[in-house]
Amino acid sequence: MDHIKMKQIKDTSVDETFVLESEIRSYKVAMIQMKVVGCKQTNINKAKSLIDDMYHQIGNDESKKPLVIGLPEFFNWIGDMNDKQTAEEDDCKGPTLQMLSGLARQYSVHIVSGSIMERDSTVSPPKYYNTSFIFGPDGRLVDKFRKMYLYDSKLWFQESSYFTAGDRPCIVDLGKGIKIGVGICHDIRHSELSDYYSSNKCSLVLYPICFNSDNVETMLDLLFRSRAFDSYIYTVGVNSARGGLCWNPTYEVGGNSLCCGPAGEIIDRMGTEEGHLITTIDLDKIQYMYDDCPVPLRKKQVKAQPQYSTSSRISIPSSHATVYSA
């Protein structure tokens, strides 16, 4: 259960003042929502086509260009997780990472690779991770984030049967004083990760996700709004479009990629089809929330206290008790 799996994420100390300093007060984030199919090369071509189409529509309007682009979880392939042939390594020689590196350089933009199956051959036998690779505007690999909280569902998919969990957060410096954090899908269930990012003055957590249609209706808004409001941070979830594949043939992916603001409001959302959406991150909204009520700075470690002994408990006279009847 999730409450059993909480990880200790070391935090930096903060005081009661919070100033989000940057050279710019707002920036753009692009969500690329696509159908994922069983052919890796088809998915790679689709992702490139959607990003190329987005920049074709933007043209020379610098005000519309995103500072960072996000793709869905397992955007390049999904199917039988026992098939390790689709995995790539962080040497960036695989076709997926080469394509993303080229696009980042071509458009001078940061790209968060959604996530792909990563093979770590530095150990024997190799380990496999659900990993998001981050490329900078020069096309170089900046960092990578390995999913920390694996999705172990008795109904859909036992992720830990195929992957090893990551053990560290990932903060990406986009330049101009802008920092963002990265999580992957089930990581959104765990507020300690978004708290870590907000305490380190990130303005956004970008989550590549793979939410099915049922979860889109019942959980998507709740989780992304909650994490945004709890941590005073923007949350962006980039989902696959409806009709794409997932691990379980009965698991229908639901689209609806979205951006939520620090007041828990939905800023933007997509429908179920393929395409892109460019949304705006406003740092002044984050600063306003901290100035109004700096709750995230005041979160405390709650430690269990000894229970009161029976003799020390206050008894309530029956005459004062409230009785509820159906």
TrEMBL record:
<protein>
    <recommendedName>
        <fullName>CN hydrolase domain-containing protein</fullName>
    </recommendedName>
</protein>
<dbReference type="GO" id="GO:0050152">
    <property type="term" value="F:omega-amidase activity"/>
</dbReference>
<dbReference type="GO" id="GO:0006528">
    <property type="term" value="P:asparagine metabolic process"/>
</dbReference>
<dbReference type="Pfam" id="PF00795">
    <property type="entry name" value="CN_hydrolase"/>
</dbReference>
<dbReference type="GO" id="GO:0006541">
    <property type="term" value="P:glutamine metabolic process"/>
</dbReference>
<dbReference type="GO" id="GO:0006107">
    <property type="term" value="P:oxaloacetate metabolic process"/>
</dbReference>
<dbReference type="InterPro" id="IPR003010">
    <property type="entry name" value="C-N_Hydrolase"/>
</dbReference>
<dbReference type="InterPro" id="IPR036526">
    <property type="entry name" value="C-N_Hydrolase_sf"/>
</dbReference>
<feature type="domain" description="CN hydrolase">
    <location>
        <begin position="27"/>
        <end position="283"/>
    </location>
</feature>
<dbReference type="GO" id="GO:0005739">
    <property type="term" value="C:mitochondrion"/>
</dbReference>
